[in-house]
Design a protein that fits this description.
two-stranded antiparallel sheet, globular, 18 helices
Length: 433
């Protein structure tokens, strides 16, 4: 046997690679086993998404919960469903199991993305720990059975964040453009992530100082170009079909539903007769903060935060129970992730110029955005991978400082916002993904 022929392969099979492969196999097994072990239920939203995909294929009409064209929801997830239905042959076969297996695949790749992000921020031990938690965190398994946006959104968001970190770290215009495209895909799945392009590049501008602002603006322009490229067909469709400008979606129900403190939907605060969801939201906010300011202030701060973070997302409904972990109270596992992330944010922000500030900003901004809408554990599952990353990155940095008095490899914190181009690099060649 010629050992020299296989020596490059053996050199790449490191203990870290073996551990990561084991975690990915574990993530694959538990997700597939869950899908095969339970009977899956269809929530009202799932029923509407299923009907929407079938109507799109049968009649060419894009509409949520209606037979006339609308822009009630963004098209990312409905188009994914329609694509799977068409490939499978939905007239002859049930397409939903195929959708669920595809979502499980998204979940496994998301575990790898979490590893890459955490390893980039704080070294390989942090990456492996974050991947291990992501592989077995129960909601990340349960959500694969729901015909809802969560699995696809988590995957797209993590892919965007990894590309964005690479763009910042390498000053890569290619990576910045790819990040913009991936953010566009994420927005077409869940529109609330649109502000992230401003949040991230606001951080880049502050982090780099005046000397690097030109490069920062150029990267921002490339990201915005990628974002617009993905969003443009949706904007054109709405202008042509609906004869109106729709930035993301017209749905306003989550906004109005969020104005009912502690979900007391029969409080009789205003007369809703003849009002649209948006008008109801505005009027309830005006009357609520005028007549019951303390109740509404508490609801729009600690009240909604408790609803968002206090409990785990339990999936779209299934029987029998599938516990994932042999824990007497898996809820404590969830709370440990949340509180370790909160502590990690405080630690990481002490050196705010580091790349690890990016996921911290995303979690904080998305939490603030969600305060405007109805609080649901399901909606916030998309930031839970980032909370895992934050907790693991902070733990790795703290441990390394205590043991060695320095930060771990991969967790560089005080570098400039953008890495200057190397002398050998030409204007036509920049490092990409």
């Amino acid at each position: 046997m010629n050992r020299s022929l296989f020596s490059p392969l053996f050199r790449t099979v490191t203990p870290v690679a073996i551990l990561l492969a084991v975690l990915l196999l574990l993530a694959t097994y538990v997700r597939i086993d869950f899908l095969r072990s339970v009977d899956h239920q269809m929530s009202p939203d799932a029923v509407n998404y299923d009907a929407m995909a079938r109507q799109l294929l049968d009649k060419g009409v894009y509409a949520y919960h209606d037979t006339e064209p609308n822009a009630f929801v963004t098209p990312g997830y409905p188009l994914l469903l329609a694509g799977v239905y068409a490939i499978v042959g939905y007239d002859s076969y049930d397409p939903l199991p195929y959708v669920r297996y595809l979502q499980a695949l998204f979940g496994v790749v998301s575990v790898w993305l979490v590893y890459r992000i955490a390893a980039k921020l704080a070294g390989e031990p942090a990456g492996l720990l974050a991947a291990a938690i992501t592989a077995v965190y129960p909601p990340f398994i349960w959500m694969n059975g729901a015909i809802l946006t969560e699995s696809f959104a988590v995957f797209a968001l993590l892919a965007y964040i990894l590309a964005q970190l690479i763009a910042i770290e390498r000053s890569s215009r290619t990576a910045a453009a790819v990040a913009g495209v991936l953010l566009g895909v994420t927005v077409l799945i869940r529109p609330e992530f649109l502000p992230l392009v401003a949040v991230v590049y606001g951080f880049v501008l502050l982090r780099g100082g005046r000397a690097n602002r030109g490069d920062a603006w150029r990267l921002a322009a490339y990201s915005c170009a990628g974002l617009v490229l993905v969003m443009l067909p949706w904007w054109i469709r709405n202008a042509v079909t609906l004869h109106e400008w729709v930035l993301t979606a017209t749905q306003a129900n989550p906004l109005s539903a969020g104005t009912y403190p502690y979900k007391q939907y029969d409080d009789g605060l205003i007369d809703r007769t003849g009002l649209t969801d948006r008008q109801i939201a505005i009027e309830r906010l005006r009357v609520g903060f005028s007549t019951q300011p303390w109740l509404f202030l508490k609801w729009y701060t600690v009240g909604k935060l408790r609803y968002i973070y206090e409990y785990m997302y339990a999936g779209g409904g299934f029987t029998p129970a599938y516990p994932v972990l042999p824990l007497r109270d898996p809820h404590k596992f969830h709370l440990a992730i949340v509180w370790s992330s909160v502590a990690g944010m405080a630690l990481l922000l002490r050196r705010w110029r580091q790349l690890a500030t990016v996921p911290v900003l995303i979690v904080v901004v998305m939490s603030l955005i969600r305060l405007a809408f109805v609080p649901e554990y399901r909606y916030n599952i998309t930031v839970m991978p980032l909370m895992i990353v934050i907790g693991c990155a902070a733990l790795a940095q703290l441990t390394h400082r205590l043991l060695y008095g320095s930060r771990p490899e991969g967790g560089r914190t005080d570098e400039p916002a953008l890495v200057p181009a190397q002398p050998t690099e030409t204007a036509h060649h920049r490092p990409g993904l």
